[in-house]
Amino acid sequence: ATVIFGIGLSRTATTSLHHAFELLGLRSAPTSVGLLRDLDHQVLQHYEAFTDNPIPFRYRDLDARFPGARFVLTTRPLEPWLDSMEWLFSQGIA
After folding, report:
1. Could you tell me the CA-to-CA distances from 31 to 15, 42, 52, 55, 77 in Å, in that order?
2. For residues 80 and 3, what is the distance between their CA atoms, to the nearest angstrom?
3. 3-state secondary structure 8-70
4. What pTM did the predictor assign?
5. Cα–Cα distance, 1 to 50 (Å, whole number)
6. Helix/strand/coil for 81
7. pLDDT digit string (tens) for 45-83?
8. DSSP reduced 3-state for 89
9. CB neighbours (10 Å) of residue 43?
């Protein structure tokens, strides 16, 4: 099966992409944080789609480790993205 990685930064519709993967019948990981330090993390064995951090920061390594993987880049205009990030950090969520 082909592995799919959403490589957009946080707050660029990564949650929506996760849900879209699920609607398409893919097993989408609710979190991929374990991949920050370990590209052999067990999460890779249980899911076929991954979004949000740390995926955007590890995409080169993931591309090398998974030949033929697909990548989806989500984007957002700069000012709304900055406003959203500011809101996120002000909430103590990030």
Report:
1. 10, 12, 8, 10, 24
2. 30
3. CCCCCCHHHHHHHHHHCCCCECCCCHHHHCCCCCCHHHHCCEECCCCHHHHHHHHHHHCCCCE
4. 0.90
5. 14
6. helix
7. 999 999 999 999 999 999 999 999 999 999 999 999 999
8. helix
9. 16
